[in-house]
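It would be a great kindness if you could assist me with a short task in structural biology. The matter concerns a single protein, recorded as an amino acid sequence and a row of backbone structure tokens. The record follows directly beneath this note:
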Amino acid sequence: MTATRCCTWPRGRDRASRKAASDHFFVLELLRRGANPQVVNFGGKTCYDAAHQLNHWELGDYIREKLGLQKIGASLPPRESDPDVEQMRALVGERLSAMANQGKMSMLPSVLQGKFGSFQIFGRSLEERLGGMSDDPVSGLFSEHCLASDSDSEFVVPNHPDLPPSTPMREFAVVVGEDGVDTDTWTIRTSAEPTCEDGARLTGRKLFPIAYYMECQEAKRAKLTVSEMVALRLFTGPMYEKYNKVLRSVLDTDSAVSLEANSYSTTIGLIISGILKLSRIATAKRDKEGKVKAFRGLSGISLPAAFFKKDAQGFCGVVEAAFLSLTDDPTVALDYARLSSLAQDKEATIFELELGKASLGAEVAWVSQWPQEQERLLPPWTFLEVVQPPTRREDGLTVVKIKPTVFQNVRTVEEVSGARKEKFERT
């Protein structure tokens, strides 16, 4: 997503003045910058409520109509036409979904729900909790997306409102094509064209055959398998929501995922394998201080007390149970956090993560369905250590500096296969 410089409040204004001015800013700036018209500002108003209060009745009704709400301007005293309405009419339709590609780079309440784990999560391995990968990766991928109990169940991804409801089966076809799997030999027909339903091929969404991505230099250098490529492509689209939900479910119970549920264990294992391989060739773009940093914006989430409570060894932090999506571009996280702070009664906050040799993660923009995200991906169960107290900048942004530690009990496909073979030979 193209990042733009975020407007800041004029210097010298106190909070009361900023709150009073936020209505006009909310209507004319938040929409222009791509915020969701259904969220509320500091005063608890939606942008269409704020528009009406500012006497921009035509604009308020136009937005209400776009959202399927009843117009109210007819009941208000007549007035001259809004000077801003024509400009905003050209923007509001596309801005209803302008936040579409930022959900993974941020922590939305509907996506993350502010849930983190502690070191107790490591009491059992990820494989023990989700189940192991299938001995045949292609068969496992196909079964989890086309034959499972939820394969034909529709779901909506919160950060892709322009996409029609989808199913795991449809998303699998988007990545590999309707005839992309030979179920006799369990191989992927890499030249098969993606099968995409009407409305799902949006501007900015890149859909090419798997063969296209297997020819990329990154795939060759990392020695990715076709199955890993399919899994990574699936994650960078709407299916990430399903996989992360499964991974976060382990925070609610000490037991493994139930046998009736689809744990996506093969898919998740393949994504992890791909991340590990790509992390070995990841670039380290250093700032002026010689540090490698990545960023993640927070939206409408109060961080749990455990985040800042020191343990017996003097460390504080939490475990992200799901895949950790970051962006290398600080303006993406900064703009998102600032816009969200205007839309909700929360302070603008971002995570600034200092990456090291073992925590570079995988650069997945080249393989992503949404390459403009500039996504960097870390595997599940990454420990987020808070390295210093949160700092408040002059512009009101709160920065939490984090040092991630990647969970070491994760393996590539080849390592899993080799361990199984060794175990079989010993028995």
Summary: The chain has two domains: 15-95, 103-426. Residues 15-95 form one domain. Residues 1-26, 93-103, 107-114, 341-345 have pLDDT under 50 and may be disordered.
